[in-house]
UniProtKB/TrEMBL annotation:
InterPro entries: CHP03643. The lineage of its organism: Bacteria, Pseudomonadati, Bacteroidota, Flavobacteriia, Flavobacteriales. This is TIGR03643 family protein. It comes from the Bacteria. It holds the Pfam family DUF2805.
Length: 95
């Protein structure tokens, strides 16, 4: 599969961080970076060590994964630290 992602190193790091977090759904990555789930999987496979990728895929594919909004329990809210700056459409406000 050949894909043409035009992500900076900072954006790539952020996508990997968001994908690694259990509470961040794929829909959030799609909204911010226009990357579908298959694109995120490809990025993770090509940028993580083999063992790390396998652990991540096993966790994401498990029956209790919360990586899809439709599978989430309604009681799970996104944690937001009081010191966290607001992020709007991938534009992080400067300090």
């Amino acid at each position: 599969m050949k894909t043409n992602f035009k992500l900076s190193i900072e954006e790539l790091d952020r996508v990997i961080e968001m994908a690694w977090e259990d509470r961040t759904p794929f829909e959030a990555i799609l909204f911010q970076f226009k990357l579908a789930e298959k694109d995120v999987i490809y990025l993770m496979r090509s940028n993580l060590k083999t063992g790390s990728f396998k652990r991540w895929r096993k966790r994401v594919n498990s029956g209790n994964s919360q990586k899809h909004l439709r599978k989430r329990l309604q009681s799970i809210d996104r944690f937001k630290c009081t010191r966290q700056k607001s992020i709007s459409n991938n534009k992080i406000s400067k300090r």
